[in-house]
Amino acid sequence: MSSSPPSRPSAAAYGCSHRFLLASTTVPVRSGCSERARSLTVALRCLPIAGHRLRSRRVACQALTETDPEGNGDDEEKEVFGDDASSPSADSVAEVNGPAESDSNIDNKKDETTNAELLSSSDAVQNIDGDATTTNHTQENVEVVEVASGSPLPGMKQQLDDAERIPKATIDILKDQVFGFDTFFVTSQEPYEGGVLFKGNLRGKPAKSYEKITNRLENKFGGQYKLFLLINPEDEKPVAVVIPRQTLQPETTAVPEWFAAASFGLVTIFTLLLRNVPVLQDNLLSTFDNLELLKDGLSGALVTGLIIGVHEIGHILAAKESGIKLGVPYFVPSWQIGSFGAITRIVNIVRNREDLLKLAAAGPLAGFSLGFILLLLGFFLPPSDGLGLVIDPTVFHESFLVGGLAKLLLGDSLKEGTQLSINPLVLWAWAGLLINAINSIPAGELDGGRIALAMWGRKVSSRLSSLTIGLLGIAALFNDVAFYWVVLIFFLQRGPIAPLSEEITDPENNNIGIGIAILLFGLLVCLPYPFPFDPSQLTDINFDL
């Protein structure tokens, strides 16, 4: 990318990029004529090729002319056709051919024919020259700088059109009247995919400067342009990006969003029911022959679905408070744990990192809170049927959080190799916690990825996302849930996250603390519990060593 917008192209530059037609008319004269009238060449201005996609009609290059080899005479030099010059008239042509007519009566008819042709050519020259001169004056008044090259905004799908480019006059107004010493002092500019990227020095607090620049931009141009205040990943310095707002309109889909979301939701209800019926899990193909058994999984599906629903309600409430528009949630089915949660698009542009953090953290915060309360109730409350669900205690080794709580609350009754009866609410709540935890993984456009970007910025979150996906890939070799989840992230949620209006200001410390707590809580849910539940087993291991 260049450091400044291109200046007005020269005639030679236009000649290189457009095809043109150069027409000349030469008038033959007798040998007795003077050297000045020996030949006359009329050069037409270059014309743009028909159908070329330009905003306004443009003259491709400066006019050319031919002079005599000896360079004699000042009159011939004045016949060069520039922007302010006019084409030769028919009278001037007649003066040049006048001496030729008086030399001999034998050539009168021939010369008259030649003069008539020349008059016709001169009229055509005048018409074309008049149009070209008018076009040149129009071009001088409205000059367009096409900035079609450059890197796109991260994660932003722009609908670019040749008609949506920022004119040079607008760029000058942006530099001189919108930006300023009190907000952002511009030192250079570069093309930026339908807009312009301004480099310079940020003055004052980023949030205040952004507000001032935005107000000036709206006063000058209304809602025509959108401002982004970002961090340049190349040098970690602030940059301002101005984009035509019309190019940032959301894309439309062929299938209505609600129809696709409803289809995914129905499948998710089925997998939630299926997950809580162990008999059907052993033989998935027999499910359609024993649909009546799905009612046995209704209680578990309701509890897990309630935790997922509270998660999404948390997002909706936070979005409403921050003025963020969300799309329809797509619930993702899973036959291992019932569901992988929901994928929800952010429709509009988020204002700053504070708002993004509140939005991303609200869902896991609500889901973890409800799931943890239900998990505790499951450990304390006896089974409703008096029997409960008989399990092998080794299952608690799969989660550091659940295994630690089981060891703390169940005590010596929790031993490997012995059967244990528990309230099934423990497993239902645990599934809800796991769904929230995998959505809190700091990767891509998951809640955890958005939390990481909001807290630490785009560069750190991008590296953390790559590391997390790599670790998930390794875990996928040993765990089928990790395998399907890493596939889902890679194809649907790997990002990058769309840019925020202002990405420089850090969130408040209390919100950062909530974000870190969510990431750590999710990690505790996903990590295994490495210690044996029976202390005697640990003693036996030490004795054997």
UniProtKB/TrEMBL annotation:
It comes from the Eukaryota. It is a multi-pass membrane protein. Keywords: Chloroplast, Hydrolase, Membrane, Metalloprotease, Plastid, Protease, Transit peptide, Transmembrane, Transmembrane helix. Residues 83-94 have a biased composition (Low complexity). One of its GO terms (cellular component) is chloroplast membrane. It is found in: Plastid, Chloroplast membrane. One of its GO terms (molecular function) is metallopeptidase activity. Residues 115-125 have a biased composition (Polar residues). It holds the Pfam family Peptidase_M50. GO terms for biological process: proteolysis. The chain crosses the membrane at residues 258-277, 359-381, 467-492, 512-531. Residues 301-462 form the Peptidase M50 domain. Its main location: plastid. InterPro entries: EGY1-like, Peptidase_M50. The keyword Transcription does not apply. Residues 67-78 have a biased composition (Acidic residues). The keyword Mitochondrion does not apply. Residues 65-139 are annotated as: Disordered. Belongs to the peptidase M50B family. Probable membrane-associated metalloprotease that may be involved in chloroplast development. This is Peptidase M50 domain-containing protein. It comes from Panicum virgatum (Blackwell switchgrass). The lineage of its organism: Eukaryota, Viridiplantae, Streptophyta, Embryophyta, Tracheophyta.
